Amino acid sequence: MAQGIERNPGPKSGSTQNSLFNISSFNVRGLSSSKTKLRGVIKHCRDSISKNSGVVLLQEIHKVDFNYLKLIWDSEFVVNNGSPASRGVAILCGKNLEIIASQQDTDGRFIICLIKNISDNSHLVIGNVYAPNDFNLATNFFQKFYLELDAFIANNVDNQLTYEMIIAGDFNHVSNQEGRKNSSFSEAERRLSVLTNYESESRDLV
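User: That's the sequence. What structure does it adopt?
Assistant: Structure tokens below.
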């Protein structure tokens, strides 16, 4: 873990080995107050993309300067700013990738993108999520998010298109009781986990 950057937990490295896209996800704990930190995060993101088909998901960016980010990241990206002290997400793409469509909420909590790899014409629907850390609020958030995801696909993805779909980011909960080794697994978190597991499995999400 780099200073001020937390790699999000996720599937074991072999679970997405057949993907045509290289995905990394980081909670960066705020980029509003320091361009030096923003430049450092961008360098870290470049290093994490091992090929030009890489995608980097950032959570908790807070509120970044879009024009400055455009100067230091020379490929396509989408930013959904939060407040100067909370929330905010971004998706950064490698040079071979083109963002065909994107959608975001008004609270700095998620971005959904349809991305095309121009080198082989493969496609990816990807969602970057920064969920509330209150389990009841998160339940409401995810219920709305999956509806937005379905609507995005219906409005932007051709029925004949073959694509991968990945939802990642900082969910702020664990998927089962085994993930709470040193703390309790509350009823509210259990209900939230049941919801997100069901919604993901029903869509065959990675």
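The radius of gyration is 16 Å.
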